[in-house]
Amino acid sequence: MERLLPHESPFETIISFHKLIESFEEIALSDVDYRSNYAKAILKEVEPFPEFRTGIHDYNIIKNNEGLIKNIVADLFPTALTNNEIKAITIPFQNLSFNYTERFKKILRNAGDEFDMEIRDFDDHQFYINNCCLILAYYYNQNIDFNKPFFYDIPDEQGIEKHYRILYNADFMEITPTERAVELTQDDIDQLIDNYNDIELWKSKFPKRSWILKGFGIVSLFDATTESAISNLKSNLLKPDSTRVTSTDIIEDIFRSIFKIPSLKVGFIIYNPEEEKFIRPIKFDNQMQSFLLNTDEEVDCKNAFFGCSFENLLHNKEPFVISNVEKFIEESPNKKLGEHLLKQGIKSCVFAPVMKDEQLLGVVELVSEHPRDLNSVNATKLELILPYLTDTIDRYNTDMQHQIEAIIQREYTTIHPSVYWKFRKESQNYFQNINHTKDYIFKEIVFKNVYPLYGQIDIKGSSEHRNETVKIDLKNQLTALLEIFDNQKPNTNLVLLEQRKFELESLRSELEFPLKADTEQHIQRYIEEEIHPILKNTKGSAKNEKLEALYFESLDEKTGLFYQERKKFDNAMSIINKKLASVLDKKQLDAQQIYPHYYERFKTDGVEHNLYIGASISPTKPFDVMYLHNLRLWQLQTLCEMELEHHQLKESLPYELDVTSLILVFSAPLSIRFRMDEKRFDVDGTYNARYEVVKKRIDKSNIKGTKERITEKEKITIVYSQNNEETEYLKYIKYLQHKKILEPAIEQFEVEDLQGVSGLRAIRVKVINNTANPTAKKITYQDLLDELN
């Protein structure tokens, strides 16, 4: 018996029938003859086995005297109920059990020889403390509710897992202390009750084998499969995302237990009311299948595939049941749906709507490989399950909407994380006042006394390059058309063809001159209205037909024009912008560690960025001007890295493009205000507007007294207005020259006067195009100070 009982227990367990024997002795002395004779007969059978009264230590005695034990406990195990009740003799919480009812024996036979009956989710810790709680309850008379529901999970003959609730009867047991038992005070008991997880404390108060558990218990099981399966389903569905069910198998096992169908499979689809489509829930990809969609991502609800079969489901919100798919194919006009299911081996199925507030959320799919497994009768069991599915899908939809809103906010607005707290605070004020005041006026989001940093990497001569590629494509298209016309056979349209050739040659000649604003549109309209109709309505030679086919294949679907050269240019622009933007975004994450600041960037013909740093953006962190200097050095170094990235890209670009880099220095603090109408930040105030004017015009400016642009390829231009700014940036440049990032030569010049702005100066320095340079190392302002000092 020792091997059947856990080693770690406060009990020395002794199986005994002494309480029953004592009751038989009392009955034997009674005046009721048939009861007295029965009791005397039992006592006579027990007499040769004193251990039945004193205690059984050898389990073989139980095995060898099963008939006697059955007679002793006959009053507790009525023969008439043996095929109905699930009962046995046991010791609470332990695996030792015997004297099973016939129904219990059948359940264990169906489970198989290898099945080991263990209490669900019951570990050694719980076992030890539950035994201790038995002592507290029965010996110390403590009112402790320690009996949580216990279950055995036992498979039936079909392999379906069934769940049985366990009930214990301990009326025939007694608990007594040994000399090793520790006498407990109320303070000790209170300490134990407050420290359930401290197993060592419990073991110190209840040492191993310090108490005797003598007698026997009765375990009764009842089939709680449906209730337990629904509870398991609810628990799985209510788990947060991080611990959500990771396998369809878990869900299917639960449904199989409820429906008692071994081959049952489960699927699910979401209903999109805006587009009236069934869609596969992406969140459950590879976790929840769909038998209606199968490999499709979405299907229109009005698709002929569903036919009229789903009218009840969609309009009356009633389950759609097919108990025999093969018969459905023969009798239903919607054979396509039946064949679709049969191809997947489905012979019976139920498609049930998941509803909330009269709105369809989705459809749960139950399918089986056997006909009539699923039918209109057992489909009613879904009524027990659908409420939990409804809550889960509603939560899924809500979560999806929140994520969509987050994506919109991240991708389509300019609310940067550094300033999000202020928007959140104002939104919270609105939320708290929404029920008190009808007309809440939103406060303006303003950050005062912030320092701006502006920089850009611009595609050099992008407009000229774009115009040139347009001209090349137009010339090639006109030349292709002229070749087609030259190969046309003489016919009645000869005069018209000659006129069109003349017009095409004239248009081609115009392209030798600078491109006008409407030239492209004019040529496009002429070709579509005058030339294409002729080509489509005129038959030519086999050679000409090949030329025409090649011509039409070369047209862009959207514009109807040649797009080869422009495509190379556009692709090159896109590659450059994407790469430079990714470098800037990645480096920006490091910059936020210097001091939290507002950051935004734009892709135009290049990449621009704005930074604003100051105490008002991060009021919980003390601000020092050192952070501004550090950020300026970071900006200069980052532009150097972006220049190098472009240099590495140049040879692989489909169209060669150069870039120019520029930094605008502005030392006076300013205010930025969120423009509600434009949903973006802008500088605030008349004086601060000067900064915006310079930003918009500076990159197209020339060196004062010349026609030379202040920006030049592979060089960084730093525009400033004050002597201290010049001194500061010359230090940065000197340091980066020392690090072999910038070339030794430095150009300094004045910038031509802009409208309303004069006195600007600039420094220009070239980046060393050596990919081996260690620019990836982060250089801080403190590094610079340490080196220079």
From TrEMBL:
Pfam families (UniProt xref): GAF
Domain GAF, residue spans: 312-373
InterPro entries: GAF, GAF-like_dom_sf
Protein name, per record: GAF domain-containing protein
Species the sequence originates in: Flavobacterium resistens
